[in-house]
Amino acid sequence: MRKIILITGASSGLGAGMAREFAAKGRDLALCARRTERLEELQRELLALNPSIRVAIRALDVNNYEQVFTVFRAFAEEFGGLDRVIVNAGIGKGKPVGTGYFWANRQTAETNFVAALAQCEAALEIFRRQQRGHLVMISSMSAMRGMPGNITTYAATKAGAAALAEGIRADLLRSPIRVSTIYPGYIRSEINEKVKNTPFIVDTATGCRALAAAIEKEKAEACVPAWPWTLLGLAMRNFPLKLVARLN
Ligand SMILES: NC(=O)c1ccc[n+]([C@@H]2O[C@H](COP(=O)([O-])OP(=O)(O)OC[C@H]3O[C@@H](n4cnc5c(N)ncnc54)[C@H](OP(=O)(O)O)[C@@H]3O)[C@@H](O)[C@H]2O)c1
């Protein structure tokens, strides 16, 4: 059983929802994000839900790469190791490429990909030393193909993150370290508050229950919720681009 779980981007949405799921299962939690007041509130909630667990919180801006290493090492020291790291922090900012929003697309690329790499580096440094651990990359169904409109860069970062996780998995195939890539479909959170078209969206609690269950299986890849996204994933990979583009 993975007892000690670090989650980045734990101050809202999927990160907070997964923390609730794992707290209910009796796991110890290392939670980080920029909005520490939200983390403090969540810490109180989780300890009330399950007083037998440990919940540690730390401020982390994942774009501050040095801080990523410092915070991950500090959590590992505090808990005497880490069993699972969920690379979850992400943003959904963006506009069509070439329309004057390089700053927004770049911010998304840096947060969702370069900072995800920093988190993998920091996690794997700990896992390689321990010779055990479970790395979980939160990608997105949008990673399945190139996506139009505002999510072109977002989808590309999520495809990059999935490829990064697969490469790490390939590197560690003969080791006890596991690597899972999770492709969530639409799950209600702040990231999609203003998105008009959200097919098959589920509420946060339903989505996070499915996420935690999929993560616990430790498969290489999982679309979540499995229905309808596993089937849609196959379709997205194989259908003509003009059909795939309509999903957005
Ligand atoms: N919800 C969906 O439908 C869906 C679908 C597919 C994939 N995903 C992915 O799921 C992950 C979580 O998203 P969500 O839906 O839960 O959105 P959310 O509610 O907006 O949460 C995003 C989380 O990421 C954190 N974050 C953003 N920038 C950060 C930074 N620079 N440093 C540290 N933390 C940062 C935020 O914390 P602070 O602002 O407090 O730092 C927040 O806790 C993302 O990677 C997203 O791409 C979501």
Short structural description:
This protein is of the alpha/beta class and 248 residues long.
Describe the structure.
The structure is a single chain. The chain is an alpha/beta fold and 248 residues long. It has a single domain (4-247), classed as NAD(P)-binding Rossmann-like Domain (Rossmann fold, 3-Layer(aba) Sandwich), CATH 3.40.50. Helix content is 49%, strand content 15%. It contains eight helices and seven strands, in the order βαβαβαβαβαβαβαα. It has helices spanning 13-24, 36-49, 65-79, 102-130, 152-171, 204-217, 226-238, 241-244, and strands at residues 4-8, 28-33, 55-59, 84-87, 134-138, 178-184, 221-224. Strands 3-2-1-4-5-6-7 form a seven-stranded parallel sheet, with helices on both faces. Helix 1 runs parallel beside helix 2, helix 1 packs across helix 6 (204-217) and helix 3 runs parallel beside helix 4 (102-130). The chain starts with a strand and ends with a helix. Bound molecules: NADP nicotinamide-adenine-dinucleotide phosphate (NAP). NADP nicotinamide-adenine-dinucleotide phosphate (NAP) binds next to helix 1.
